[in-house]
Fold:
Amino acid sequence: MKNRDLYARDITQFSLLNNGVAEVRGNLTEAEVKTLRFELMTFICEGQYSRGLSLILDTFLGNLGKPEQPAVWVSGFFGSGKSHLVKMLRY
Structure:
């Protein structure tokens, strides 16, 4: 079995609009909004991503209304998806 057989959408039928690199910043151009929309539509939130997002969001929501929020530190190896995780959290 090949990786592409595991996904609901055939990953060989579209190209990565972001060339596999996630950037976290504001003031997006029209092309960047298109790329962001693509990233959000194709984001798979399972495993460590799911647990990380849940932990960060649960902590944030648990501290709403308080004068301070605890900081978040996202760590991992090069290419492990840290920037992508933060970008998905942002939007």
Notes: The chain has one domain: 3-90.
